[in-house]
Amino acid sequence: MWFAGVLGFAAILGTAIIIWALRRGRGARDALQDYAEAQGWQTEFVPATHSSSGMTVISDPNDTWTLRVLPAGNGCRYEWVCSSGALDEGTAVLGPPLPPQAVKMMRSGNGMGKAVLKAGLKHTFGALGWTPRDLNVDEASANHPGGVVLASDGQARAMDALRDAAEVKMARVGKGEAEQPVIIRDTDGLRAHRVGPLRSMNELRDMVALGTALRTNFKTETADWL
Predict the structure, then answer these.
(1) CA 170: distance to chain centroid?
(2) Which of 17, 56, 133, 184 could form a disulfide with 69 if both were Cys (CB 3.0 to 4.6 A apart)?
(3) Domain limits of the chain?
(4) Residue 131: pLDDT over 60
């Protein structure tokens, strides 16, 4: 019992040290740069302005993705971005599965309930560093175990190839709803966003692995319906 408590305290302490380092500036930059170089990646440090937070932008010189790491509350916000998988128009967003109570609310026929649910989902996505435009909750995906979809008119199926991806399921394991990734497709391409503490530098590797795996699945699977 006491051993588990010690491990738990160590994990919390380790997280706190990493977050403290990220907020210290130069020491955190050195740590991120060293880790990125070990993976064969490049880093760029964008200073904060009066309208935006500072960020670290990580990229692969042999690929087209970027990973932005920004401070967010007591943790970080991760934004993996790639131009692959762009839609001709509109936007589709894949979030975590809805709890049973939310599904019941959506299907109750109560317009106010649907409006409250949609507002809640938008707030969640906004906290991840991206505010959806005028999207609608796809009721067909309300109780889908792969997640709920918000989409522009005509784009509700844009997440079909990604919703059941094993990588998305694995990325959700062991994370609370607030830390689970949100996947976005729009005219700019494919994105994966997540918030949470940076418990180790391997979290960066895992976020890149999620994005690149989804991109691969997208390229091979969406041809079935496009």
Answers:
(1) 13
(2) 56
(3) 2-224
(4) yes
